[in-house]
Each structure stands twice: as C-alpha cells, then as structure tokens.
Design brief:
Radius of gyration: 29 Å
Number of strands: 24
Helix content: 10-25%
Oligomer: single chain
Order of helices and strands: HHEEEEHHEEEEEEEEEEEEEEEEEEEE
Structural class: alpha+beta
Length: 321
C-alpha cells in the first residue's frame, strides 16, 4: 500500500482561485472607501463635494445669541454657517425639495461673501502636516458657454484657470432663478371695447428689476396674426431699447419673435425697469394684428396678480486645482 499523501488536482485549483480572489479583494476594496487620496483623487473629491453642496443644499445661518436661524443665509451673510445655493420653500427645514434649482439672491450673495469664508465653508483646502493649504478654484454658472449676468453681477467666482495644472472639473445642469414673470391667458386680458386687437395691463412702479409678461392662448383670427408694438401711457416704446420680445412654439424654447403669431404660441415681453421708476401705476397697451380680445374693461389686468418665478437652464461648473 502506498501511504504517501496526495492532493487532488480539483482541490488545488479551487484553493488557488480562492486565494486569488482574496488577494484581489484586499487590493481593490479599500480604494472604494477612501474618499480621495493622492493629488488628483483629492482634487476630484473636492470638486464633486463642492458642486453637491452648492446645487443641493440651501445653506444655513445661525445667531447663537438669540437662537435665530433659517436657510435664508443670503439675508444674514455675516452669520452664515453653511453656504448653499438651492432654492428652499421651508426656511426652517435645512433641506430643499428642489435640488439643482438655484436661488438668484443666494447666488448674488455668494459673489459678495468673504473669500476666507467661501474656502472654509466649502472645504476648499487640505491639511498638510498640520498646515492649511488652500486649493485654487473657479466656480461659474454658464449659459451658451458664457457666465450669466444676474442684476449686473457676473456669475463667476475664484481664480483664472491655469494652463499647466491638473484640474478637477465637475459640471451640473441646474435651473437658475433669474427673476419674475407675470403669466396671462390672452382670453382673460381686458380691452376697452369688445373684439379689439389690443389688450391693457397695469404695472406698478418703482421697479427694482425688469418686468416680464408672458401671454398664451391667443384668439387668432387669420394667418396674418402678429404682434405690432407696445405703448406705455400712450407713448410707443422702442423694441431695441425699451423691451425685448421672445416667442415660443408649442414645443421648444423661447426665441426672438419672427413675425407671424400662431394660436398655440406664447409671447414673452421683458420691459426695462427704468421705464417704471416712479411710485405710480403705468398702463401698458399691447397692440396686435388679427388677434382678438373680448374681455371688456374698465378694470385692467394687473401685473402683480399673476407673478411666478422665472428660471433659465444653466451649467454650474466647479473646477479645483
């Protein structure tokens, strides 16, 4: 009888596979749980974290002496505890139900807040042997490849991008609140007499931002229907300097008006705020061709009765190096 020990080939192959799997796991799994290490990994993590905070967090302010606090940190920038740009309907929740929808007021205040506060609150730094080393960064909100301008503030913060550095970049699609719009159904707009081709809207000054009107559901009477012009308290306004006119088809975005008006299209007219500088009520008359308004006055439709927030699609870009 042969009493020498033998190892079955199947057992040897099985043990080899198990050892290989264990070795792979020990090498690969730890990297999943390390939140950025080494140069490029840390930069990438910082850029991603910053974009999440700005787009998904409404921010927070707190007054430790009176226990007052809310997400309206843009009204108390000197007491901000957390910087976030997201719109928030419940100012006491510290959360938002509309992530990736940015507040105009928060963005403007973000442009003005102290640089050290931005770096500290957003964590744009690293600790090297106990010494704080600040990252360089560039945060911008872009549309059509260019920084947006909100209330004369250009939506860019940080340093000029270098030509010879490793840059970690995160871009998120967001909706940016750009102001207000008053939305009207053309069938409810009032006119001086029945079956007129003009409608009247009252606007009250003084205006702190451009006033925008949006109109839908036109009663188009022929193929030659079109917007003609606007008069303000009896004077005809200039389309080049006093207002801008955009038109949107049933499906698509608002574009510069191109003449003929169809029933399913919407018009958006944005008036220069300088037209409404005084504390008074202004009468705007919208003049059309082959568009009928049947709701007779004497009361005019009021801009303040139909105000909604106006949003624009943009790109929030965070770059860190």
């Amino acid at each position: 009888m042969d009493e020498r020990g033998q190892i079955a080939i199947d057992f040897l192959l099985g043990i080899s596979v198990v050892l290989i799997a264990i070795g792979f796991t020990l090498q690969f799994v730890p990297g999943i749980f390390i939140s950025g290490y080494g140069g490029e990994e840390k930069l990438g993590y910082a850029a991603y974290r910053t974009s999440c905070i700005l787009a998904e967090d409404p921010g927070w302010w707190s007054d430790n002496t009176s226990n007052a606090s809310s997400t309206e940190w843009e009204k108390h920038p000197e007491k901000v505890q957390r910087i976030g740009l997201a719109v928030d309907n419940d100012v006491n929740s510290r959360l938002t139900e509309t992530p990736n929808t940015l507040s105009k007021e928060k963005l403007i205040q973000f442009m003005l807040i102290d640089e050290n506060e931005v770096i500290r609150k957003l964590g744009l730094f690293d600790s090297v042997e106990g010494t704080q080393m600040n990252y360089r960064y560039n945060i911008s909100v872009l549309t059509d490849g260019h920084p947006m301008v909100i209330n004369n503030y250009t939506a860019v913060r940080g340093d000029k991008l270098p030509d010879d550095s490793n840059i970690a970049k995160i871009t998120r699609i967001v909706l940016l609140e750009t102001g207000n719009v008053s939305v009207f159904d053309a069938r409810s707009l009032t006119t001086d007499s029945s079956f007129s081709e003009y409608a009247n809207i009252n606007l009250t000054g003084p205006a702190t931002e451009n006033l925008t009107i949006q109109i839908t559901n036109f009663n188009v009477s022929s193929s030659g229907a079109a917007f003609i012009n606007v008069t303000l308290n009896g004077s005809t306004l200039s389309a080049s300097s006093d207002y801008t006119l955009l038109k949107r088809p049933l499906y698509g975005d608002f574009r510069p008006d191109s003449g003929q008006l169809l029933k399913d299209e919407a018009l958006r007219i944005s008036f220069n705020k300088s037209l409404f500088a005084s504390d008074q009520t202004y009468q705007v008359r919208l003049n059309f061709n082959n568009v009928t308004f049947t709701e007779q006055g004497p009361l005019f439709s009021a801009y303040e009765d139909n105000i909604e927030k106006l949003y624009k699609t943009a790109y929030l870009t965070v770059e860190v190096w």
